[in-house]
Amino acid sequence: MDHVFAPWRIEWVEREGGNDDVEGCVFCAFAGGNRDRDRERRVVARSPRSFVLLNNYPYNPGHVMVIPETHAGDYRDLDDDALLDHARLKQRTFDALDDGMGPDAYNAGLNLGGKAAGGSIEEHLQAVADTYDRLHEAFAAQAGAEFRGEDRAVEFEFE
Length: 159
Fold this sequence. Notes:
- By secondary structure, the protein is α+β, with helices and mostly antiparallel strands.
- It has one domain: 2-Layer Sandwich (HIT family, subunit A).
- It has five helices and six strands.
- The protein has a six-stranded mixed sheet.
- A hairpin with a 3-residue loop joins strand 1 and strand 2.
- Helix 4 crosses helix 5.
- The radius of gyration is 15 Å and the shape is globular.
- The mean pLDDT is 81.
């Protein structure tokens, strides 16, 4: 197969003007900031240096992105602390997807720079395995999770 056909994504593909409501990088706009808007923005979990965002136009239910808070179009530009934090949150994400969605397998990949479907915006992992509630609950049930309310992302501190 040369192309994945996902007709429900056509609104995203054909939109004009990009993200007019966001100045600069959309991912940077979601990093930090007002965490009381996490649910509205579809941020389901956070660690000190990364966050998990449900894809607005998913290929499948459970399509999430794990995004470092450091703006970088290239994975090699992340420092060791950001790399480790991102890797740990990816592990937590697969655990939450297992518990919340129960998929048979995953397709996962990094979008890195250039025209790599948002990679020119910022490096991020795409994992396809979308319900906010099931994933939010699965993240909250993990050891070390800090539940801050239904409308805020579950938070993790890594040592």
